[in-house]
Amino acid sequence: MKIPHKIFGIAALVFVIMGASITYSTYKLYLVSKEVSDLAEIFIPISDRIAEIDLEIAQQEIHVERLEKHLTGIKLIDEELQELASGIVPRHLLSGFETIEEKSARLEDQRTELQNLVSLEERDFEVREARVDEAVERAEALIARAITTAQTEEGRDALKSLLPQLQSIDQQHSNLHSQLTLLIEAFRQDSPMRFELEKLIEEEEDQLALNLRTTWESIAGFTESAALKAEEHERQALWINIILAALSGVLALVLCSIVIKNMLKPLRQLVAGTQEVEAGNLTGQLETSSSDEIGDLARSFNGMVEGLRKTEEIKDTFGQYVDPRVVSGLIGDTNMELVNGEKKVVSVLFADIANFTSISERFTPGGLVTLINRYLSMMSEPITEQQGLIDKYIGDAIMAFWTAPFCEDGEQARLAVGAALKDSALIEKLREELPELTGLRRDLPDVAMRIGIATGEAVVGSIGSEKTKNYTVMGDTVNLGARLEAANKVYGTSVLVCGRTCAMASGEFEFRRIDNLIVKGKTEPVAIYEPLGQLTALGEPVIELKERFEAALDAFSSGDWAKAETGFDGCRQFNDPVSEVYLERLAIIRRDGAPKDWNGVWQLDEK
Questions:
Q1: How far is residue 212's CA from residue 591's CA, in Å, rounded to a whole number?
Q2: Whether residue 520 is found in the same domain as residue 548
Q3: pLDDT at 280 (0 to 100)
Q4: In this predicted structure, what is the pLDDT of residue 18?
Q5: Would residue 259 count as lying in a domain?
Q6: How many domains does the chain have?
Q7: Which of 214, 228, 372, 405 has an alpha carbon 20 to 30 Å from 198's alpha carbon atom?
Q8: Residue 37: what pLDDT?
Q9: Residue 348 in contact with residue 477, Cβ under 8 Å?
């Protein structure tokens, strides 16, 4: 039997069991629906009507309180007007700014305004009365209609018991309205009966509130009962689902174990094969003696392994020319970001051997290739360890860059500076290997390197013709990195970085400000810095040199030539080549005079 037939038989049995479970659950959910329907269509709307009645009654009471306040105000104004008419001016009206006639007119206006408010409150009071009657009528109509449509017998009985309660509430409210009307009239006539009426109204309000609360409790009880029944039906449906699901699961497991028993051996071979592939072994092959689906799977697996083997051969070959991470992105997936390119923040590093032309003249072509290969191998290792991409080798020069997604965004400058400092340290090791590499035992060349790092925005992507492309970076940041590498010749330094590189990497490394110059091809000045090492590994001499040099540089930038010369001369004890450069500049300034528009910026004419 084919595997699909076996699986279909197991699925059919599980389907029958689950069908029974669904049927029972549907019935129980129907009962739940009936209970919920009573809640949603009957009890909750009735609750809303009761709440509306309670709210409108409360609003009526508020109108009565406002009427009492306004009528009291009218009474006080009438008394003041009578006193003014008799020539008696109340003390609180003796302002000295109004005549008797003006004061009388003002009080008349206030009385008219209060009388208008009284009329509005009386009108609203009657409107509230009509709304209460309408709310009661709607509630009674809703209950009458719901009795005929209730889904359960318990719901119909509960609804029938609510009608007498609503009728009682309606009657009590009518009594309360009559008493409130009498109370308003008593306020208007200032009758002593109002105190007795207030007591009666309080008793009527308490009784009405009790009836409303009783009705609320009845509805809440009906709602809770319906909810509990719905919950019980839902619980029963859940348990039957669990039992039947467990039963179908057990049967499925038993039947599946029988099917799996016949497939276990080739599947184990397949698992072992995948583990070998995961471990990097792409030489294994699976037996494909069976003609069923497992045999097809084994053949597909063998084809996949063969494809992976060829892909790895391609990656290994091209990984010698292009960074393997780029190769993986371009071969394994059409990565549009890698193909089309986009503008990103990058750190670009340029490095080459100082005085390479004169050094190369001392070697044979074979010896020169041996030296360059060793140099490039040693200097490339820190770059790749620090997640950098080596863009290209140009003779003895190295161009590399750091950018997302090959390193974490924001870490470009820190990683680039770390690689540069490691390269500077490795150059000493290369000098020790020169006798073995070149075969020379004396007159060995003085091998040194220069590195420039610039950080900023650049276009990153596959750039070139339709047939030949290079994954590289373009832009002013790249040009600045090359100019900084060349600027090392001017200052006698090994590594120079731009201001943005210094800012992004200053949390881990210490830098010395070198100059503020305009490089070749630029019109705006660029601040350049020399990395001195990690913050936690600096010695006292390095720190002292940094402080002395930057103080002298500040004096030089501000035009304080004497102070600058004294400061740079004090740096000579540290054998600082940069200080010698500034002393030469100061000598030129003494000879030719300082520029009239001096702003501390130096023009670099060399590339």
A1: 107
A2: no
A3: 66
A4: 72
A5: no
A6: 3
A7: 214
A8: 66
A9: yes
Together in a domain, 345 and 443: yes
Question: Is 228 part of a structural domain of the chain?
Answer: yes
Residues 430 and 381: their CA atoms lie apart, in Å, by: 13
Give the model confidence (pLDDT) of 52-107 as tens digits: 777 777 777 787 778 777 777 777 777 777 777 776 666 655 555 667 777 778 77
Q: Is the peptide bond before 405 cis (omega within 30 degrees of 0)?
A: yes
Q: Which residues of the chain have pLDDT under 70?
A: 1-6, 21, 24, 27-43, 87-98, 149-152, 154-155, 194, 216, 220-224, 226, 230, 259, 261-267, 269, 278, 280, 282, 284, 288-296, 298, 307-340, 605-607
Report yes or no: 487 and 519 within 8 Å, Cβ to Cβ.
yes
Question: Tell me, what's the pLDDT at 606?
Answer: 65
Report the sign of the C-alpha dihedral through residues 574, 575, 576, 579, in that order.
Answer: positive
Orientation angle between helical segments 577-592 and 561-570, nearest 10 degrees: 150
Handedness of CA 364, 365, 368, 373 (dihedral sign): negative
**Same domain as 187, residue 116:** yes
Tokens encoding 542: 């390095």
Residue 449 DSSP one-character state: E
Are 481 and 454 contacting, i.e. CB atoms less than 8 angstroms apart?
A: yes
Structural domain of 182: 3-246
Regarding whether 344 and 240 lie in a shared domain, the answer is no
Count of CB atoms within 10 A of residue 490's CB?
18
The helix/strand/coil state of 326 is helix
Instruction: Specify whether 209 is located in the same domain as 220.
Output: yes
pLDDT at 336: 46
Rounded to the nearest 5°, which phi and psi values hold at 395? 65, -120
Q: Assess whether 476 and 601 both reside in one domain.
A: no
Q: Are residues 411 and 496 both part of a single domain?
A: yes
- C-alpha–C-alpha distance, residues 416 and 493, integer Å: 17
Bridge partners of 533, per DSSP, are 510
Residues in the chain: 607
Cβ–Cβ < 8 Å for 515, 483? no
CA separation, residue 266 to residues 211, 273, 279 (Å): 79, 10, 20
- Token digits of residue 484: 């900084």
